[in-house]
Amino acid sequence: MIDPKRVLRALAEHWTLLEPLCEHFDSGTLSLTELRSQLSVQLPESTPVDITMLLDQWIRLDILVPVAKSPNRFELNAQIHDFLAYLRREHRLGLCLEIEAYLRHLERLAGYIKDAFEVRDAHDLARQLRLLDMRVRDVLKKLLNDEQALVAVADRAKTSDRQIPLRQRYAEVLATWDEYVEPMIQLVAADGAFEQGVYRVEHVLLRLLSEQQRLGQLVDDDLLLRTHARILEMQTTAQLTLRRARELLLPLREEARRHNAVTRGAALALSAIRRKGLDAVPQASMPMFSRPQSTFLGSASQVEAYVYALARFEPKPAHFPKASSSRKGQAPRAPRTAREMLERCEQALPLPDLMAWLLEQEPNGATDELLYWFSRLSRDSRFQRDRLERREYLTAEHQVNLSSFALIKSNPASSKAEKSSV
Amino acid sequence: MNIDLSELSHLAPIFRELFKGYHVSRRDPELYTQLSNQQDQYRALFKALGFELTCDPRGFYYFVPEQIGAQVNKTAQRLALFTFILVEHLADQGRDPLAVLDGGSLGRDELPALLEKYRDLFVQAEVTTQDELEEKVMRRLCQLGFASEDNGIYRFLAPMHRFLDVCLSVQQDRDLAASLHSNLPLPTPVLVDDEEEDIIRLDEAAVKVDELSEEQAISEAIAAERANQEVDA
User: Fold this and answer.
1) Residue A289 near chain B (CB below 8 Å)
2) Residue ranges of region Disordered (chain A) (predicted)?
């Protein structure tokens, strides 16, 4: 037998050396040479003899054990490894099947308890109850370990390099989901093996309690109640662990699935475009890319005024003139066409000031109408324009401040060049 | 519902941005905060005005134009094509497309290789040079609030999810998948010939504000609009 005190003392004394080694042992074994070089890095002042003594001590205390059939490779003793994993909260995820096996065993123990009570064997009954209690503790410990392991799985996926493919990054998440969470969901479901197993064991314990009251005590009631409470705790813990697993892994799993769908969708679309052109992606797939309304709105105050006016819009009843009644006053003038204005402007060339000319032509014209003609005429390729100094112009309704243009006839060669550059 | 206009302190800039097709996301903290705080009021007001404000839970707002007359235009096709290409390119390189397109970034120096690799596809979208790629795709992405550019680094913003959604809907489109293995023609959508039709009008005017006065910019835009109407008529 190894003296526990010596093992614990060695672990405490050498913890700074053991902790970094744990990380290596988590992922595999180490050869004697690797072990020595690791230790010499941490103990730069020690001699090779010191390191040999240290390793000897660990081997003697069964902290380090040789790997089967490879005497020069070492690993941490599995018991010590589990103990250290518990202390470091770095657990390996167990199997759902283990929990199921434990549950079957609990059910069997419940059967033995029932038998022992029926034959009134107090000693056996107490022993089986203790065994049941210890098994429940095992399940609890395993569930808590698994929860820690699940947190680590999610953390590794979240913190790993963002540049590696998602499939690779989330491989562990997907495997964990398929191998642990999915079976756990079935196990812990209302009609699953877990609930049914717990129900059977609970039923036996509660029946035992009432029978003891009727037939007299074989074991202490407290023992029964404590075991019963622990079983209920196990049931709650299983549900909490499962919920936590779903909360941790479901979003990551969905992300991975979405990633696959996005990549596949992009590849499909590109393949379709390669074969059948840009229009191959059905319009229905792009419902949102409609052309926005092209009505123009100008400055901030205009937008505000526009929205404000629209918000308070009240339709006015339209009064149409009677067909029979004769028109009073002058007939409204037909709006000028672009061609008409262009011709007039062309005839009036050269224009020293386009805006002033427009005001002369249309002294009663609306401001927006004048601005429209100003813009339309000044941009026409028939004219060559020179910007004038900014000044004020008075329309019938407004005072407008702008830089007008002087227009002359455009040189055909330059207008062609301009067109081709456009 | 009572709408208190005094509470909608950013109404004008919000409306102007949304109206020109821009997606408001957390990159515009003032507008975004105002929209998220007064979401219902803005939604009701815009609805009354005939604009459908979409509030995407992934953190962005945009206008959905009316379905009647809605057409997929060339810009949208170009941007979607660019997204498909980028997703495939990143996946080929072993990088995570979602990480890049959802808040990640892409260097301008990566564009030439992308253009070279997918030249056959870019040609279909009339993108043949890097300048065109930057002008017709990257600048558009920035103008519409899908991305931002800083020192030659393009950072993709939350609204990119709209393009990722296109990838997902294509993936779910069994007809498309089936048609890839058949020789029958695809049901192609009828598109308006919007060769020269820009997705945003305001920006054209906004660019010119630097060189022309604001009044001129307004008059030019009115003129362009009327010219369109003349063409339509």
Assistant:
1) yes
2) 318-339
